[in-house]
Amino acid sequence: KIHGKVIPIDGPYMCYTRHEPVGVCAQIIPWNFPLLMQSWKWAPAIATGCTSILKPAEQTPLTALRIAELAMEVGFPPGVLNVVSGFGAAGAALSNHMDVDKVAFTGSTEIGFKIMEASAKTNLKRVTLELGGKSPNVIFADADLDVAVAQSQLGLYLNQGQCCIAGSRVFVEDRIYDQFVERSVAASKARKLGDPMKSDVDQGPQVDRDQLDKILGYIQKGKSEGARLLTGGERFGNKGFFVEPTVFADVKDNMTIAKEEIFGPVMSILRFSDVDELIRRANATAYGLGAGVVSKDMDKIMRFANGVRAGTVYVNCYDVFDPAAPFGGFKQSGIGRELGEYGLHNYLETKTVIIKQDPRTTK
User: Coil, strand or helix: which one is 209?
Assistant: First the structure.
């Protein structure tokens, strides 16, 4: 429920707050989860009484347009929910428009900076950003290896690796490093590529040729910088934009594949031996969207969960999402939160009302 508060203040006054809609919201979404991202944007805007101008990614506009048609069919008033398709210029126009009160953007950190700049140069729009990530996923030596391998496979390969919170930096404790690597390679080799609509297929294609080429370029950087390629690393087949599930071992923190968001099925496995060193290395990134940890030791779990600078920490699981649980990042992974009660706050302005209580005029 959206409501304000009655606040005790000094003097003969009654003070309360109101939460009011921020106004016209430009909502710019990416191509990796088009229907899900549309729902994450429209739901809080509708719930708080705002209007939306949604700009879908140029790669995936049809989902948004179809949902807009359905919104018209069920009777949303004209002007409440709007969709403007187009390339980056359409998003830039919304970000710079003086009649837009808020921009909510999910996408790259690079574009997030541009949206912040546009807000500063125009009307100080409210801005929420859900941006890139390079999430650390930690496997302690006491972990159940079956759980650890399955968790890291899901954490990296979900949606062909095209997931902002992907656990793409897998830190494995020394004592089990070789065993974990061996089992991860076997699990990656066993993944079946093909039509993602088929139940027996594990991995579909990347979104387009640009993304395919970007991923293959990162794989080449990994090899040239000295990481050990153990499986994958190539395009799969000659039809569709498939990339083989790829595993690198002996990855160092200063390698490109350990620092930059690849947005593809490329797992980098790093060693660690000390918890303090681990937390320092996990945090040595511009990003802070998510993190994971697999262990049976609650002291280690809580030490890592409290020490890592990340918006979401998964313990003995990964990629668990729920509409009630807030989602967002630290540092250059974003500003604000989506989902749940926290997500509603970003679409509201707080108004303070103070009333003098005068017995001669107030009953």
Answer: helix
Structure tokens at 56: 């879908």
pLDDT (tens digit, 9 = 90+) per residue, 262-287? 999 999 999 999 999 999 999 999 99
Question: Which of the four pLDDT bands, split at 50, 70 and 90, describes residue 363?
Answer: low
CA 21 to chain centre: 25
Q: Is 347 exposed, middle or buried (0-12, 13-18, 19+ CB in 10 A)?
A: buried
CB within 8 A of 126, min separation 6: which ones?
22, 101, 102, 103, 119, 346
Strand partners for 17: 352
Residue range 235-253: mean pLDDT, rounded = 97
pLDDT of residue 362: 57
203: DSSP letter: B
What's the CA gap between 257 and 228, in Å, rounded? 12
292: part of which helix (H) or strand (E)? strand 290-294
Four-residue CA torsion sign, 256, 261, 267, 273:
positive
Q: Which two tokens stand for residue 17?
A: 């707050």
For 105, 130, 215, the CA distances from 110, given in Å and listed in that order, are: 12, 12, 18
End-to-end CA distance of the chain: 29
151-188: per-residue pLDDT in tens?
999 999 999 999 999 999 999 999 999 999 999 999 99
Helices (H), 225-263: 256-259
Side chain identity at 211, as an amino acid letter?
A: Q
pTM above 0.85, yes or no: yes
d(CA 250, CA 144): 22
Catalytic residues: 130, 164
